[in-house]
Fold each of these.
Amino acid sequence: MNTTTAGAVFAASLAIALGLTYRPFGDYMARVYTSKRHLRAEKMIYRLVGVDPDTDQRWSVHLRAVLAFSCVSVLFLYVLLRLQGRLPLSLGFGGMAPGQAFDTAASFVTNTNWQSYAGESTLGYLVQMAGLAVQNFTSAAVGISVAIALVRGFARNRTDRLGNFWVDLVRTVVRILLPISVIGAVVLVAGGVVQNFHDVRTVSAIAGSSQAITGGPVASQEIIKELGTNGGGFYNANSAHPFENPTVWTNWLQVYLLLAIPFALPRAFGKMVGDTRQGLAIVSAMAVLAITGIFLANGFQLAHHGTVPTAVGAATEGVETRFGVSGSATFAAATTLTSTGAVNSAHDSYTSLGGAVLLLNMMLGEIAPGGAGSGLYGMLVVAVLAVFVGGLMIGRTPEYLGKKIAAREVKFAALYILTTPVLALGVTAAAMALPGERANMLGSGAHGLSEVLYAATSAANNNGSAFAGLTVNTAWWNTVLGISMLLARLLPVVFVLGLAGSLARQRTAPASSGTLPTHRPLFVGLVTGVAFVVVALTYFPALALGPFAEGLH
Amino acid sequence: MPTTAVRGTSAGPAGGPGSARPPRRASGGLLDPRMLLRSTPQALRKLSPATLWRNPVMLIVEIGAAFTTVLAALDPTVFAWLIVGWLWLTVLFANLAEAVAEGRGKAQAAALRRAKTDTIARRLVGWAPGRPVETARTEPVPAPALLKGDRVVVDAGELIPGDGDVIEGIASVDESAITGESAPVIRESGGDRSAVTGGTRVLSDRIIVEITQRPGESFIDRMIGLVEGANRQKTPNEVALNILLASLTIIFLLAVVSLQPLAVFSRAQRPGIPDSAALGADGIPGIVLAALVVCLIPTTIGALLSAIGIAGMDRLVQRNVLAMSGRAVEAAGDVDTLLLDKTGTITLGNREARAFIPVGGVDERELADAAQLSSLADETPEGRSIVVFAKTTYGLRERTAGELPTATFVAFTAQTRMSGVDLAPPGPRGGEDRRDSGPGEAGEAGDGLHTGGGRQIRKGSASAVLAWVRENGGSAPPDTGQVVDGISASGGTPLVVAEVVITSGVDGGRSARVLGVVQLKDIVKAGMRERFDEMRSMGIRTIMITGDNPLTARTIAEEAGVDDFLAEATPQDKLDLIRREQAGGKLVAMTGDGTNDAPALAQADVGVAMNTGTSAAKEAGNMVDLDSNPTKLIEIVEIGKQLLITRGALTTFSIANDVAKYFAIIPALFAAVYPGLETFNLMRLHSPQSAILSAVVFNALVIIALIPLALRGVRYTPGNATAMLRRNLCVYGLGGLVVPFVGIKLIDLAVQFLPGIR
């Protein structure tokens, strides 16, 4: 089996597996969010935190809950990171410096998991488990809860209530993330991922030198790292580390896991709005963009005109031989398409056009299929814009799922679309304009520009993967990226919940042959086109001076 | 009803120059170059930021133009001044589009103003309805000073001083000043034809009008305001689109501003490269940055957006429909349910004879002859149709009254509910010999029994005629009832024809018998079924409103192809139906003219009042049809849709254009630093300068090129949503991608020869 065939089998089997779980998993999630029953464990949690699970929240109340929860999470994680030295299981590591602690706290609470530190040489087991792993669960659950609130906005009729954030949050963790994680962690352990509380072991290498090896509760964190589209590695090498991702099949499983929730949520959306074809249309638009991204990343990695890639048959630099070029390219495309940001190869070493594809994947705004929850709401916002433009062209005030897309809805959707480019391009331009920050680049020329653009884009899209080659543990980068990540997460949440509130208030108009059908291939094409054109127009100049300048001859 | 012929009903105003148009209408399709010239001063006035701030996209362009002017003045080059000139032209072209659209309305407003001459009204003092006018005192009041509730007297030849209702008298009124229709109309007190409009002229008789308007708010005032766009407010959809355009503008502004540090950095990587007009050591020159911003932000739709809205209202005005707000026009495009009155909209105003069905063994020809005889003097449309039907189907010649000198015609009255003819006994052959039988001989209508005998024929409603037959000693054959019921059930109206024959002689015997039944039917207007099929494919449900019984209503509904009907409809039923539809989330449109329609007109999302209707109806609706043609509702819906489609199509076109502009400008800027980027120079443009200039020129010219489309509206063919979307995406999406590649290349071929452009 040659490299190309292996890559095709790897990607195709993933697509089949995702297709098989789309219906049952999506239906299950829809049931989770529509069920009236509370589990005993959930009731205990509600009593503990003093929440009445049967109240329905207005969008503003819902938003306050999200913001308050995120704020408390950032503070808690910040304090935990700062105080690490005085806590047990620290492996002797001290507290994190303020700038980096802020950056890390912001990063994990926003589901970004940008890491300006190396896990094995900075963090002990307690912080990894009680700090980072907990955020891996809750940040994913927050994203899904917001998406579900938006879905309710479409599904409900003349109400100002969008459900209860606390209930959605708890149910996501208890009924979806935890059960899968428990089983998945065991499977990963079976595949060779470590799960222990050993101290750092020093072993002698063959050549006589000694090496410190950190164990730890890796499998339990690894599983939610992928399932929750988080991406923050236990080790610096992330999924390229043999303790995190030992074999080809754990590699396959990790890619599957990080795509599973984002690709199944549209089914839950379709189910909850009472028309599963609508979910199919949304997932199709995601799939078209995702398949294109994976195909192009593979293509540029397997057939590039550089001297070395041509000589060895593919771009093997920075690639783990365990996974091969294609297993890495597909992982890289999936991790950038989903706002996960886990890596199993060095993106910095990718061919310039392969790197451009990874950048583009993120620039799409993490909608194909995007992060857990954030992917669905991002794609629905793009669909709202597509409906607006398309609906006008059939001569009606645009309607999506019976809801009119008028000034208020367009305002929220437009603000949502604006947020990411402002942050990504703003941070890039600022970094390139400041001589000090420019000096942090290891690369030079167009490649150096790509590194900065990648870092800014990754933070502004809550992805968290890095191009490397850029020293980001500086006060400026920690602060700017930390703020960028927080704004990139919370501002869209504000706009999405505002949109949900204004949709829910409307009366649902019945569909007729005069309304824009939003379940047909034509609409899928329109949504895909709008997503791509908006991104292309926004980022084309920056991409031209980065990867294109480097890659085109 | 002064119904005029339906004008230009072909699909959309793009119908072409061939369609006959009334002279008052401004030129629709092609853009008259003189129009552009005439509007230029107005366009220049609109350059003021005080007016331009309403259009954020064009305001950015103006700021860019001003900024580059300063830069060009500091460092003058041919290239810089060319860019400056074309940036100013871009703003000017946008203003021109708006000015041209407004200009067409102004012509109409001028015509209306002429009708608004200051008349002196004669206000009645101390007069109460019912008292003779002659005894009342009048005082002269200037028309603009009239208050609501004032009563004025208007004589033949005078202008009506303000909007109001006729409270006494009847007059013929020339309303051509507002409707463009020269035939006079009748206005009378009471009923649904009492409303008069200020500025129209009484041609005969005297009426007393109670003023219903407040000073300065007359119908003509509002009309002038509407066609001039003076108090034009952005419609909800325009607001939404403006938000989208503003956010796109911000994105592109950001993309360009953030490009500068990247450009400086990139340029520094290749210190050996000489500075060019597009990229120097300090980065991209301000002029080029401004040009790039203007090219990328959605100037095309930003420039044409308000012109599209004004032109949409204008298209309605050209069809003699006044929309009280742009919001109403947009709502018309969204309508889900159309309520249409049966009479006059779906069917011709009157019923026609369709069959003669004899009963009791009477010969069909005999029935036809009797029916025709009884209808000869019947001038109602139904009566005429019986005469015509007998002639065309049975070859019975229509006889004139002169040929039947012995005949006495009996007119229809509400009491007898029948009409007919009394014929004296047949004399010698050749009726002309009996010329001397004058009016004196004719007995009283109805019960005139002539001693000489003769024949009486009556036709009318079944109950009345059958009673008449029984009175005269006859009886109805058993099949009469069946035939009558059968016709009723099939949606027709039965008219029973009967005769009484009085034999001359000593016994003076008379025999009465029923001859048969005439079947009258509603005639559905030609082409209605196709119209309703179109509506259905557009997702619009049509409901017929009628006072008929459900059986009749069902038959006509099926024949016309409407989706549903409301039979025996009362105004309350209409209102309830509208509320029911709206509760299901639907938008409802209807027409109406009577005062009792007012609540329903107000409740409907689109209420079109007939100009012949009452003031109450006109107040309640949000549109007024000056032609009073209820079928026009369908056209109004189409115009509303066309307005939105034009906006959507040009937005798509505008955004799609940007792709080509990037392919022109990015290689022009950076190919010197990174030769690989020359790959993007698909158009093989001559030089960086010519590329940037060509993109700017294209961007400006495309506005001018699209003004006619914006004014006319894009082609609209009723059809289902998917087909329409596919077509418009192909034309304006793909077209928007391809056209600028061609356009910019062509402009580049020309500008490269300009002196000063390398």
Amino acid sequence: MTTMNDRLVIAGREFQSRLWVGTGKYKDFAETKKAIDASGADVVTVAVRRVNITDRTKENLLDYLDPKKYIILPNTAGCYTVEDAVRYARLARAAGVSDLVKLEVLGDEKTLFPDTAGLIEAAKILIKEGFIVLPYTNDDPIVAKKLVDIGCPAVMPLAAPIGSGLGIRNPYNLKIIMETVKVPIIVDAGVGTASDAALAMEYGADAVLMNTAIAGAQDPIAMAEAMKYAVWAGRLAYKAGRIPRKLYATASSPIEGML
Amino acid sequence: MNIHVNGESRGTGEGQTVAGLLRELDIRTDRVAVELNLEILDRNDFETRGLRDGDRVEILSFIGGGGY
């Protein structure tokens, strides 16, 4: 099995890469582009904000990220209410070219944990309007199941708080989510370094989405490349099937033939 | 007449359209969403949709961001 013929499919769309990346916190658009290219990601998530009308010299992100080459995944980052999240999703659709949205309804400024009740409500509204809703959710298997039941074609549980770099705080919950829902699972937020991404994939995640772990690294472009290999390695290890953990040693060399 | 664009007060000519305003601001129409008095407009209506005194226009586009 190679990574080349192991494609991720969500709502009938095929994705080349199992590493998805955010576009925030980079020094400039040139660095953003270089990091994304080094990561090999074909899905890039973007936020929706007011255009700067007083300083038109500011460049546009899409001048660097050709929507024909990358799948632009707008998000509702920064929305704390159902109304705001729905409004931003609609604006994103009006500004873009697709019905895809990474839906965030945040509950609290300190943790940026999802408001899962609001998330489900907003998802219902948007799904009814034809959106393909990819919900940023907690590592709660019951909420994940509810999101799938109302029509989300994938779920995006967090590994840890956004930007925290803590890695996977609750691997057992993530494993339960992977067992209980039959849609792709994209681990979103909280990854700190390559091993976190590899671990998420080894657990059986279908993809990993990250931003700060790459953009905030001392060398973002090198970290982007590290993440590409980590996600590949984790995916291959998951497909290969790891050996069981045992308390005691098992020799790898035969006894037979010894003096 | 006076309108509000992205929260700022601004004068523009009588009979100005949404597309005309975007041209005036040097903004490409293919990468933005426009909300006029809380109504999200279809891009195909930019040319024909006229603005009136006191209108509130929001012009948004994609920026760098992952999660908030």
